[in-house]
Specification:
Elements: E1 2-3, H1 7-18, H2 32-48, H3 53-67, E2 79-81, E3 84-89, E4 94-99, E5 110-114, E6 123-127, E7 132-133, H4 151-154, E8 162-173, E9 176-194, E10 197-208, E11 222-233, E12 236-250, E13 257-268, E14 271-273, E15 283-300, E16 306-330, E17 333-344, E18 347-357, E19 363-370, E20 373-385, E21 388-389
């Protein structure tokens, strides 16, 4: 969703409505400037009509929630009544709606609010296209975004953007559970070329703490990846692969063991990630073959280092399902979340469930279950985006 106007515009319009603005738009043509502005908004409304009305309404309501949480504080289900697609925010008592049918006595693709400070009747706050320009990639696999992710953010289209996630990892072992805290940092470094493909490069660093399983585990494992992908549709991302390095120092056996690894993973063909456009209840299967090249050097005490080089190919097939939207509470806060499930034909007994922050795609929780038993999990303890805490 591309914003046409600054948030202050909607805030001003909402304030006007709350102070008694009528249910119809102000008369056009009071001045030449007003007439020109009115014509501009009409032209924008025509452009917006290229997007399915219900989809345009969804994008507008998502925008309102992101920009004005004091009025629209959650992500309730979208409902229909008469010419409106609307959402009711029980916390504030406010309704936000968009007219998606013509000839019903309301402005087509007009935005209306009602309830709370806005009164008991629908209050017109302006044409939808004066707030956003809806995006529609048309028919085909790229589809329309399901709103769970900010696709531009997902592909790192702005160099310098960074996300820091502190998460708890729990791994089930034969002797019990092993737990550690890990800090993950993602930084968009900029445009690059990988395997001949134009892409955006994102640096991913993981610093892993010592596992609390009662077994000495040496110093943390430090891992750094460079990931390469780019947006190839309004709701599709193509992933081209990554390079990685890791260093681990282990003192658990009384002798220092240092392991340094470098690797390169290339999916052939590149992975077209189209789960960004999955409708609720929908699924998609992604198939490719990963080509791996790795080099690992191990040094035990004062012995000469031993280096092993491997080249392998491994098919990758996974099915992603968009199963529901729900509220979830993790140590980082309470969020409206989209829930996805992933299965693979190689391991049909295992289901991986992931919760991501609805509208942004930030990771909140991940659980892997095999035959009803939780094998591992990741839970977000805190999130910072561009230096600011993410709380909801």
């Amino acid at each position: 969703m591309r914003v046409r106007t600054i948030p202050a515009v909607l805030a001003a319009v909402l304030t006007l409505s709350a102070c008694g603005g009528g249910s119809q738009p102000p008369a056009a043509g009071a001045t030449p400037a007003a007439a020109v502005e009115r014509l501009r908004l009409r032209a924008l409304a025509v452009a917006a009509s290229a997007v399915a009305p219900a989809e345009a309404a969804r994008q507008l309501m998502d925008f309102g929630e992101a920009q004005f949480p004091q009025y629209f504080p959650s992500r309730p289900a979208t409902q229909s009544f008469g010419p409106f697609q609307y959402r009711h925010y029980a916390e504030s008592g406010i309704y936000l709606g968009v007219v998606v049918q013509q000839g019903q006595g309301y402005e087509y693709l007009g935005v209306y609010v009602m309830g709370g400070p806005f009164g008991d009747a629908p209050q017109f706050v302006g044409p939808l296209a004066s707030f956003i320009t809806p995006v529609d990639s048309g028919p085909g696999p790229t589809g329309v975004s399901n709103g769970c992710y900010d696709v531009m953010l997902a592909t790192g289209e702005t160099a310098g953007t960074w996300l820091v996630q502190v998460r708890q990892l729990v791994l089930r072992l034969a002797v019990g559970e092993s737990t550690t805290t890990q800090t993950l940092e993602l930084v968009v470094t900029g445009a690059a070329t990988f395997e001949g493909h134009a892409a955006m490069e994102t640096r991913q660093r993981e610093a892993e703490g010592v596992y609390t399983d009662g077994i000495p585990d040496g110093t943390p494992n430090l891992v750094e990846y460079l990931n390469y992908d780019r947006r190839t549709g309004a709701a599709e991302v193509t992933y081209y692969g990554n390079t990685g390095t890791s260093t681990r120092v282990d003192n658990s056996a009384g002798t220092t063991i240092t392991t340094t690894s470098t690797g390169r993973a290339v999916p052939v063909p590149p992975r077209a990630l189209n789960f960004y456009s999955l409708p609720l209840g929908g699924s998609t299967t992604i198939s490719t073959t990963y080509h791996y090249h790795s080099s690992t050097t191990t040094t035990v005490g004062n012995q000469a280092p031993l280096t092993t080089v491997t080249d392998t190919q491994e098919p990758s097939n996974e099915t992603n399902r968009f199963v529901r939207r729900e509220s979830i509470t993790v140590p980082a806060g309470t969020f409206q979340a989209c829930v996805f499930e992933t299965t693979t034909p190689d391991d049909p007994q295992t289901t991986v469930t992931e919760w991501v922050a609805d509208g942004r795609g930030f990771p909140l929780k991940r659980v892997s279950v095999t035959q009803g038993v939780t094998m591992d999990s990741e839970t977000t303890l805190s999130l910072r985006f561009n230096g600011h805490p993410v709380t909801n």
